[in-house]
Amino acid sequence: MELINQIEQLWGRTLSPIELQTIVNLTEQFNEEVLLESAMMSQDKERPLAYMKAILREVKFPTSEIKKKEEPTSSGSKWLQDFKQQFK
Questions:
Q1: 31-74 pLDDT, tens per residue?
Q2: Closest by CA position to 35, among listed 53, 18, 11, 61
């Protein structure tokens, strides 16, 4: 509950029941330090919980990591890439 109190202080208001439930659910995936940090980063936003969740998604699935996975790595992909290159 300390985390909830800290977030309410940061955001300057009492959290709605939906916000409370969402934050409780997020504690299953992230430690309190990460949650508090993302709450601080989103405190001045119009929809702080949505912004906070976007930050946490980036923490969990970094865009840079996703882009690395999209790069062709298998020989089949390399073959397809070479084939497409012939027609450019």
A1: 898 999 999 999 888 899 999 999 898 887 766 655 555 555 55
A2: 53
Contacts of 40 (CB under 8 A, 6+ apart): 10
Amino acid in position 34: V
pTM flag (> 0.85): no
Nearest to 33 by CA among 72, 13, 61, 6: 6
CA dist., res. 36 & res. 3, Å (int):
7
Report the C-alpha gap between 25 and 4 in whole angstroms: 12
Nearest to 33 by CA among 59, 63, 51: 59
